[in-house]
Target: Excisionase family DNA binding protein
Amino acid sequence: MAEPQLLRDVLAEDPLLLTAAQAAKALSISRTTLYTLINVGALRPVHIGRSCRLSRAELQRYVDRLETSA
Model:
């Protein structure tokens, strides 16, 4: 049986929140396009202080909406 991973190991591999640059790279779009999607309400960021982050779940929801509308 595989040993369970420690929480710090899991978080180091897959952060829950991504920067705009990381999110844009994950979606294969530019940062400008990413900020446009945020401004029109297609993506909902999480704000921590002055930082803007996007959750992996939000990116997946966006992709799922694209697939269902096609």
Summary: The chain has one domain: 16-69. The mean pLDDT is 88. Helices lie at 7-13, 20-27, 31-39, 56-69. The CA atoms of residues 1 and 10 lie 18 Å apart.
